[in-house]
Amino acid sequence: MKKGITAVATNEQRRQEAKRKLEQRLQTQQQAARRRQIIVISISTVLTLAAVAAVGTVVGIKINNNRYKTCDYTATPAEQNPFGKALTIAPTLTPDKRGQAQQAVDEFNKGKAAQRTSPLPSKRELKKGTVTARLATSQGDFEITLDRSSAACNVAAITSLIRNKYYDNTTCHRMTGGTPEAKLTVLQCGDPTGTGGGAPGWSSPDEFPTGLKIVPQTQQEAASGQPNSVVYPRGTVAIANSYQPGQQGGPASGENSGSAQLFIVIKDSQLPPYYSVVGKVDATGLAAVDKVLAAGLTPRVQYATDQNGAITDVATTPGDGAPKLPLTFTKVSIA
Length: 335
Known about the structure:
By secondary structure, the chain is α+β, with helices and mostly antiparallel strands. The protein has two domains: 1-70; 74-334, Cyclophilin. The protein has helices at 2-67, 95-113, 152-163, 219-224, 283-295, and strands at 68-70, 74-75, 88-89, 124-126, 130-137, 142-147, 170-171, 174-176, 185-189, 202-203, 230-232, 236-239, 262-267, 269-271, 277-281, 297-305, 310-323, 328-334. Strands 3, 5, 6, 7, 8, 9, 12, 13, 15, 16, 17 and 18 form a twelve-stranded mixed sheet that branches.
């Protein structure tokens, strides 16, 4: 009987054990299923987040590209510094021209001592928006509204120069025009040397203007292959440069040569469309430059040199020279 009872108990135990194992197996399968579900959900979430991040990155890049412009400012090599070589007078220069030549030498040496530099601007600049420059001058205070949409890199360059006080205590060194027949009447400023040869140690990229009124050409001008001039309206502020287009398919020269020097258009002026427009002077500023124009100018001494930097000839050009009434920027700041 004990054997029979023992046998019955063993069978019951086996059934219980089988049931327990079945429950464990089902529980294990359920846990594995839940883990797989969690893993799938997690992977889906990661993929979704990654996709969102990727889209966000693309959108962000696109937004940044829409907001910013890359500007390639170029450091000026030392050998291109116009003050790197001494200016002298050639022995062959005739006595009647030596007085003007000496004046040119004196102005050159004075300018050489007044050279300034300024740090390179940032290469990543905003494309749109305006900046207000406030000028305290010897002819009253006025403002220039700088507009990035027309020349973002050059506006950024001017802004950087202002913040680094490059323009403080500088005098507008050149004025052109003033006669009724003159096609160009501007006041050029922004050179601490006062010679037209000064620069901050770097140059800005060309940003040629668009949308300016085109001046019709004569038959002779059209036949010569000259580019059409455009009208730079009164009050325009633009960047001076030495750009020259290639003739008859040849390479251009003076590319990306603008930097600190700017000019204020006193009367509507005709120029080739190669000068970056950075802004516009206010009514008070126009009154100031009108006053300077009315006072007249002293013709500028221009000279030619040999390869050693010795003056071989001099001349003056009517309607082009230093203003008799100085316009000095005592302080320039960003509003």
